[in-house]
Amino acid sequence: MIASRLSFACRPVAWSVGLLATASLATSAFAHAVAEGDKGYIQEISGVHLLPFIYLGAKHMMTGYDHILFLLGVVFFLYRAKHVALYVSLFALGHSTTMLLGVYFNVGINSYLIDAIIGLSVVYKALDNMGAYQRWFGFQPNTKVATLVFGLFHGFGLSTKIIEYEISPDGLVPNLLAFNVGVEIGQLLALTAILIAMGFWRRTIGFWHHAYTANVAIMTAGFVLIGYQLTGYFINPA
Fold it and tell me: Cβ contacts of residue 43 below 8 Å, gap of 6+?
């Protein structure tokens, strides 16, 4: 009876996973977009502005549904803190490297294509959680390498947008580092919320009943993101 009540009480956790994935369907087009006010601010200022860029970095991560969905997929079946720390660190290393180097060396990728690849990362991780690769191909891809590689693409997604906004070269490096610090702060906040919700959900019998469905929802969100971005690329390839 207690287990049944606990399961019922924590069903909203399972629903929230689905809602998060569903919300990304409506906002996936803006996964790496920067609000117009923030865009204007970035274009107008020059010099070192550490706190504003920390805020902008944290805001981007907290509102980046593709980042959050990928993180959710990564930690979905991770139970030990050291494993969570390892995978999140690999993801952070990847996206920090390409974001910083991409902006500094002005290396941009078509925003539609890079966001489609980021959608693919969400699909990849959801399928991994569903055990698809073992069933289809008989082997398990290296999840650590995949997390690092997709982290690199997530970083290029952000650097591409920053390049488009022509950030001032005056104070570029300190501002980028501050932005990256903000991204990591936002990632920690998002991850904390995810782990708290997952911790409650995993204690219920409903977790194993709904884990597969939750990953189907995550995968669907990734496919919608891919489709939307590829459509945008073929309509506006420039």
Answer: 165, 166, 167
